[in-house]
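pinned: reference chain
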Amino acid sequence: MTVTASLNTSPDLLTPSRLEIRPRYEGSNICTWIGFKHVNYLVEEAVNNHLRSGGLPPGTLYEVYGLCVDIVDIDTRILHAFHIDDVAIAEVKPARKAKDGELLFSVVLQVQRETLLKAVTSTVRVQLRHDPRGGGGEPVPATLAPYAVERLGAVPAWEPGTPDADVNADDLVKELTAGKNAYAWKFRIPYWYCHYTERMQMSGYLRMMEEAKDRFVADRGVSIKTLLDEQNWIPVVPHSRITVLDEARMEEDLYTVFTVEEIFKGITYTSRMDTYVVRDGKLLQTSTGLITHGYAVIENRRDWSLVNFDDRMNAALEGRSA
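pinned: its C-alpha cells
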C-alpha cells in the first residue's frame, strides 16, 4: 500500500483544542471511581487529539515520515475524582514554559458537578522519535525537524541517582534494594506495553507504577484487599509524575524499584519509582517517577473521605513491625 498523505503546512499547536471523552470502563476498579492510571489515559488522549487538531495526526506522522509520537514526561494532579459515567472536558494548549522546538502541553480536565469543576491538571512533554524501521515514506520536513529526536529521553525534575549494584550478582533485585525502604522485582517487557513495534510506551510505565504500589503494600502486609476487607480503606492518588530517561525495548528484563521517599503528617506518602534494564553489561535507567498516595474510607457507593494513617499503616510504610 502506498502512503499518499503528507503534511505540507506548518502545524498549528498554539490554538487550544477541546475534547469531550469518557473514562474507560476498565479503570472503574473500586466502586465507580476511576484510578489514576486511567485519568492519565484521558490526558494522553487529549494530547493526541490536540496534535490531530493542529495538523499532526500520529498515524500520518509515522506512516509518512517515520516519526513516532512519544510522551516522555507526564505530571498530573487529580483535584476531583472521576466516575465511570462522567464526561471529561479536556482543553489542551502549549505550556507557558514551553521553549522553541519543544512539544510541551498544558492539559486541564473539567467535570460537571453542581458546577463545572477543574478536576485534573497535567503538563505533558512529547517527542517525535524518528524510526528508520520499514523505510519508504518521505523525508522529515523542515517544519517538523525541531521536534524530531533519534532517541527518547527527557531531563528529570530530580536527581534519580545511580544505584551501587553489581549487574553480575546472583540476585540483582536484592542488590537494588539493599539498605533502602524499597521493593523491587524483575519483569519481562511484553509487546502490549510497547508501541511502534519496539519501545515501551508511557502507558506501560503507568501500569508499572500501579503494579509497584500493589506489590509493595502486599509485601508489607497491608494489601489493597486486606485494607478493603478489614477497614474499608482504598488508596487515592492526588499526584503522579513519570519521566522517560532512555528507551526500554520489547522483551528486555525491566527492574522496577519502588522506594518510600516521604511520609507527610500521617496523611499521604510519596514514593519514587525507578526502572532499569541491563544492556551491554551495564545498568541503564529508563525512567523515574513519583507518586503520592493517601487513603480514604468508603462511606457509600459514591462517596469517600480521607483518613489518617493508623499504627499498622505507618509501620508498613516505614518498614518496621507495628
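why pinned: The mean pLDDT is 94. The two ends are 64 Å apart (CA to CA).
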